[in-house]
Amino acid sequence: MRTALTGLVGVRHPIVQTGMGWVAGPRLVTATARAGALGILASATMSPDRLRSAVREVKSRTDAPFGVNLRADAGDARERVRIIVEEGVRVASFALAPSKELIAELKDAGVVVVPSVGARRHAEKVAAWGADAVIVQGGEGGGHTGEVATTVLLPQIVDAVDIPVIAAGGFHDGRGLVAALAYGAAGVAMGTRFLLTSDSTVPDAVKARYLAATAQDITLTRAVDGLPHRMLRTEMVAELEGAGRLRSLYRALRRASGFRRLSGLSWPGMVRDGLAMRHGKDLSWSQVLLAANTPMLLRASMVDGRTDLGIMASGQVAALIEDLPSVAELVARILAEAEAARASLDRAANSSPSGA
Q: Distance between CA atoms of 36 and 335, rounded to whole angstroms?
């Protein structure tokens, strides 16, 4: 299935595996690349040295294109860009809009730049700055997300920019891929669906929690870091939502201390990263610290399997997912479903009305 996305990045299929912290590591990205889709390494939870090692690990396993996801507001963003350029990574994706200068630096090195956006004005801005494509995430998507549904946001942005648009938020099968293409998108990006594969390194107990989730078990909360964050409703989420300001500050300090030891960040560096995530929002100091060490809360679940201590970012689509295929099986299934959906639409369009 060829689209503007496959031509731009050199993959066989218009499917993107998003850069999920602690989830999108070399194993998952390699499996995605081998399946002909675009896998994206999550670098925010890696040190620069670990990022370089992870890139080389993927390259040693496959010659297919892949990408790296960056936090544009991270203090070491330029160091990570340098690693991407030096290691010959095909795609740089961004959780937030990168600066005009950062886009130019990557494009000058031949790297395809694909920011994620949640509003039309953001898409227009990065397109004007030279971004090669955008990932558009509607409110159904997991993790930090907006309030506008994909079905409303996607056509707005498709009509507003003349670069490939990749649809994210609410996709898990071939029917969704065909729907996105019908809206004018060049492909779909999925996080939760790739998390729930046998190639994902997420612990089995955590995967089981996702598979058991109903639509009512997936919530949008500001209690974690003051920003809208879609995740599974867990003991930790309920605790954070019910905690007072002093208790939240104490818990934030305790968890921040743990993340500081793990990441090697200084206290000033952690606070700086937390403040960078405010984006004009009025966050309390406990929320600033939680914003800086949200990766620690994700790690508790995604790496350590502690569903009682961690948070589990999740798109609403988790309520529709019932199995754990390999990535190769998943991609093949999506393509078969997409072809079946298109054939069904063709038959419907070509059939004569009754009595004609």
A: 11
Residue 18, classified by CB atoms within 10 Å of its CB into exposed (0-12), middle (13-18) or buried (19+), is buried
- Same domain, residue pair 63 and 160: yes
The pTM of this model reads: 0.90
CA nearest neighbour of 208 among 334, 295, 329, 318: 318
User: Does any domain span residue 208?
Assistant: no
CATH number at residue 160: 3.20.20.70
Gyration radius of the chain over CA positions: 20
Write out the residue range of the structural domain in which residue 140 sits.
4-201+325-346
67 and 196 inside one domain: yes
263, part of any domain: yes
**CA 94, CA 77: separation in Å to the nearest integer?**
10
Tell me the per-residue pLDDT of 76-121, one tens digit each, with 9 for 90 and over. Answer: 999 999 999 999 999 999 988 899 999 999 999 999 999 999 999 9
Query: 330 by DSSP, 3-state: which?
Result: helix
pLDDT digits 0-9 by tens, 339-354: 999 999 999 999 867 5
280 class by beta-carbon count within 10 Å (0-12 exposed, 13-18 middle, 19+ buried): exposed
- Among 331, 327, 299, 323, residue whose Cα is nearest residue 30: 327
Tell me the pairing of strands 218-221 and 165-168: unpaired
